[in-house]
Write the C-alpha cells for this entry.
Amino acid sequence: MDIEETIAAPYFKVQDVTEGVYLIGKSSHVLMNSASSSTNPKGLTMASANYTQGDYAQYIWKVTAKDAGYTIQDVNGQYINFTEQSGDQCSVVLSDIEQVLSITKRSDGSYGISYNGHYMNDFGETHTNVAGWRADDN
C-alpha cells in the first residue's frame, strides 16, 4: 500500500510515516472507510482515485503513534482492526477499539501495514477487498 500525505489535492507519496493524516492507497485506488461486499475474508473496499485533482477528504486516515506502533482511525472515529486471524488470511474491519498496528517501509518506497503477522492486502488485486494476508506482497 502507498501512503499519501493529505489535506487537499494534489496528493504525494510520503517518504516517512509519522503522526498525521493520510490517504492509504495503491496505484490508482484509495482505501475507503466502508466494508467490502466480499465476506471471505471480510475487508474494506477501495475507490478509483485521481491523486492530482480528486477530493478524498472522506477517506482520510489519522495515524497516531502508540506503544511502538500506530493506530489508524477514519474520519468517523473508527479504527482499522485485523480480526478473525487464522491461517493465511484474516479480516480487516473498522471498530471502536484501538489496535496497535505496524507500519513498515518496503524497499520500493511503499509501506506495509500489519498486525500479528498479517499484512493489509488488496485481495486478488481487484481493489474490491482489502483484507489481511500472511505475505507482504502488494
In short: The CA atoms of residues 5 and 22 lie 5 Å apart. The mean pLDDT is 89.
